[in-house]
Amino acid sequence: MLTTGELALLGRLDLVYRRPQSGLYSGERRSPRSARSPEFSDFRPYVHGDDFRQVDWRAYARLERLVLRLYVAEEEACLNLLLDTSASMGLGQPPKWGAARRLVAALAFLGLAAMDRVQVGTLGGARLPPLRGRDGVSRAWAFLERLEPEGRAGPEDLRRQRWTRPGLTVVVSDFLADGASAGGVEAAEAAAGAWAVPLAELASRRQEAVLWQVLAPDEERPVVSGDVRLVDVESGAARELTITPGLVDEYTRALAAHREGLARVTRAVAGRFAHSTSADDLEAMMLSGLRVGLVKRG
Amino acid sequence: MSLLVPLAALSLLALPAILLLYFLKVRRPQLQVSSLLFWRPHVSDRQANAPWQRLRPGLLLLLQLLAAALLALGLMRPGLIGAAGVSSTTVVILDASPSMEATDVAPSRFQAAVARARQMAGQLGPGQQMAVILLGPHPELLAPPTGDAAVLRAALDRARPAGTRGDFAEGVSLANAILSGRPGGSIVMLSDGHSLPPPTPPRALAPLTYESIGVTGENAAVESISRTANGTIFLGLANYGREARDLKVDMVADGRLVDVLPVHLDGNTTADLTWSHLPAGTRVLEARLAPDDDFALDDAAWLLTAPPPQHRVLLVTSQNAFLQRALQLWPGLQLTTQKPADYRPGRYDLYVFDGWLPPGGIPQPALIVDPPAGLGPVPVGGQVDPGEVLPGNPQDRILQDVDLQDVHVQSAGAVRSVPAGWRTVIAAAADPLLLVREGGQPGAVLTFDLHHSDLPLRAAFPILVQNLLQYLMPGGFENQVFPLGQPVSLQVEPGTRSVQVVTPDGRTVALPSPSTPFTDTTRPGVYTVRQRLASGTRVSNFVVQLQDPTISRIAPGAAPLVQAASRPAGPAPRGTLEIWPWLIAAGLLALVLEWLVYLGVPVRRLASRVGWRRRLEARA
Q: Which residues in chain B have Cβ-Cβ distances shorter than 8 Å to A227?
């Protein structure tokens, strides 16, 4: 699914979790709990029952008080990757489906390489059991390769997801859900606002949300013109239009408003919003991740 | 309200056409998209595309109908009668005499005059009209009175200088015809004062303003070129300017410079040069003055060294000195005179029988003068008094420059009926006097004895004989010199299929018929005639040359004199104010609005930017 060169690129990158992660197993992620580790965290007064081995005897020599030296615990993090498999992901030139699938594969690789607990699934509900370690990469990729874009997906599908452990949830989609009878800037803002409630619920389950929008270049700037009959591939709804440069400009403004709305609702839950096009290679997509702080150089 | 172009009402058919297009269904290609989220439903009437569905009024449709209606009304050129104030008509007479080709005014006098006329056309106000007359040998109405500057400019684009001097009297006469019944008119003449002066000042129905074109009179010319029997070339040069000039004459033989002759010419003098170095075998010799001056038409002269075509003519007469002398005037004519008793038919280009006809067949072509009664192709009867001599057709080429006013015929043979294929050239009150045969072998019959008429004593007689010879003997133009602007009768050989003339500037002019005179002789130089015959192509030449010293004196002349005539009385009519520019502008504005709506530009936002929001809201 990814080339050797792309794997080498990913080898120099790492995921960024804004909150310390607490997992079942020790890992490479900063934990909210204190433990033995090379990284110093804080001091605290000794209380009865504390482990004598953690007493800082040098501090006792200076202060004549018993204080404990605390260290940062490093535990595994939980990474949830959700891919939109609705029919609209199969459209675009080049199709968005390939780019979105490769993006999820790359993020899964990053998580598994860092010994995170990675769970790959779809907005529709299909989900692979949690994976851990580099051994899970092939299983995750095989799962992704079996998927095909079909059906519909929307914000309600995100609400149906069940989360057992806190972590980072990345949703890769075009976020072009049906439901607006009227188009335009107002409708686009409303459609983006529909993701606010699912994201809030996601945050309440201690999930750090990342929305990653993948669109095709001809969806970012349509090249169609003249009299056409546009058909929504998911709902089958049709609209007859005479597409003029003015109408395309309005489309572009609506798209910008939609993105701004998605970014706003994501920020509201302390999440992050990234976007890329299906024409971008993996390096360009990772740069988008770097820009929003989802990826860092390891 | 009046409509100047009512036929343009047909453009109103665009309205039902627009409605028809709205009824028809648009076949739209289908395209799958991820979502309709960003596509706002556009102007609603574009979705009303079911076949033959009921028409729904919409903003776009209304704007389109409004634009079409305004444009159609504009095309009909409606005008408000009497709203444009007092109308006036200006007749511009544009002198097209050859001297107007002088370049002392850039680019030339004629072009400067055309530019001035254009300027006047551009300055016409509402209700004002202008007409343009091109003053050539026969004045031509380039543009009838109109207030449309575009029509006037298009007419001025067609203006070309003529080869001969313009007839001023005829120009004023044509201007009078235009201005009759139009009080408040005026005549503007754009000229250098070289048009043909009338014997008496013509009467003008409106004041004439003369605008002189041209600044200088400096000009030198090659007046003539000829060759003697021993091959010596004679050149006649003239300096029509005031200043002395040192010139050179380039002698060009068949396109190759062979000699340069220096010459000094004082102001207003002439000089003759001889030159005897003509290379053997030269066909065309050109003498050209150098350096060029402001008038190029007379800077060169051409000599065709080939002799004029030889014609053998047999005159059979008892005694007719008038006829004999007139025939001998034709260059290259070999005349053989025989008495009827000595008549021996031979090979001649023309047979002239005077008062006698051979008993056997009459050889052709033949000019028969005073045929015996009952004989000949046009049988004549006894002698009668024919009465007043009149031209059969004043435009007949055989009567060109022939003045019959003072010609009298005492007696002539009565012609009972004109045979088929013959036409009357000179008629009398009772009978035809001169008939010629049309088509086939040419022939002519003069029905009276020249001694019974004063025609031989008139200047018209030798001209009439020359014209008859031209008609009866084709090929009379070859190696001849003709004045600039004069039509040349290309009397081609019988059986000629087509005739082409190559002008000095390289243009090829095909004559519509072989008998049509060639009139495009406005450029001096050597003209080549190609006659296509059944046996092949015959090529011959003739020369056109400026031979009029009055034209070569290019100094601007004085204003021509006119007499005031009784001018049209009555109040000046009021002009019609044309409102089509406003209608067209409104139509275009409606189109722009329709386009903005079509592009999806929010009209309200646009309106608010220019401060119309409050007004729109108030109206709402």
A: 26-29
Q: B32 and chain A: CB distance < 8 Å anywhere?
A: yes
How many Å apart are CA B154 and CA B151, to the nearest integer? 5
By three-state DSSP, how is residue B372 classified?
Answer: coil
Q: Which CATH class is domain A77-297?
A: alpha beta
Domains observed in chain B: 2-81+581-619 (no CATH), 88-215+556-572 (3.40.50.410), 220-304 (2.60.40.10), 311-472 (3.40.50.880), 481-545 (2.60.40.10)
User: d(Cα B96, Cα B195) in Å, to the nearest integer?
Assistant: 8
Cβ neighbors of B474 (< 8 A, separation 6 or more) are B491, B492, B493, B494
Tally of CB atoms within 10 A around B323: 22
Give me the residue label for tokens 């001297």: B99
Rounded to whole angstroms, what are the CA distances from B456 to B193, B354, B574? 38, 14, 60
Q: Give the model's pLDDT for residue A262.
A: 93
Which residues in B lie closer than 8 A to residue A244 (C-beta atoms)?
A: 42, 598-600
What is the 3-class SS of B186-250, one letter each residue?
EEEEEECCCCECCCCCCEECCCEEEEECCCCCCCEEEEEEEECCCCCEEEEEEECCCCCEEEEEE
Q: Which residues contact B255 (CB under 8 A, 6 or more apart)?
A: B284
Would you report the helix, strand and coil content of chain B in percent, each value rounded to 5? 25, 30, 45
Encoded tokens for B340: 């009827």
Is residue A11 within 8 A of residue A5, CB to CB? The reply is no
Which pLDDT does position B113 carry in this prediction? 95
Cα four-point dihedral sign A53, A55, A56, A60: negative
Is the pLDDT confidence value at A73 over 70? no
Q: Do the chains contact at A231 and B35, CB–CB below 8 Å?
A: no
Strands (E), B96-185: 128-135, 140-146
pLDDT of residue B46: 46
pLDDT(B52) > 60: no
Place of tokens 């030159």: B275
Cα angle for residues B481, B482, B484 (degrees, 5° grid)? 130
SS3 B580: helix
- Strands (E) across B266-341 are located at 269-275, 284-290, 300-304, 311-316, 333-338
Amino acid residing at B187: I
Whole-number mean pLDDT of chain A? 85
Contact call for A240 and B30, based on CB within 8 A: no
Closest listed residue to residue A81, CA positions, set A216, A150, A171, A194: A171
pLDDT at residue A101 in the model:
94
Q: How many CB atoms lie within 10 A of CB B258?
A: 15
pLDDT digits (tens, 9 = 90+) for B557-615: 888 888 877 766 666 666 667 788 889 999 999 999 888 877 666 655 555 555 555 55
Tell me how long chain B is: 620
Supply A142's token pair. 């095989």
Distance CA B340, CA B342 (A): 5
Mutate to test the interface with B, among A176, A223, A252, A258 (most CBs of B within 10 A): A176
The pLDDT, as a whole number, for residue A113 is 87
Q: Which residues in chain A are classed under CATH 3.40.50.410?
A: 77-297
- Mark yes or no for CB contact A233/B26 under 8 Å: no
Per-residue pLDDT tens for A166-207?
Answer: 889 999 999 987 655 677 888 888 888 889 999 999 888 888
The type of residue at B285 is L
For B:340-369, CB contacts with A below 8 A are: none
The bridge status of strand A78-83 relative to strand A167-173 is parallel
Q: What is the pLDDT of residues B473-495, one digit of tens each?
A: 765 677 888 888 888 877 677 67
Computed over every residue of chain B, the mean pLDDT equals 85
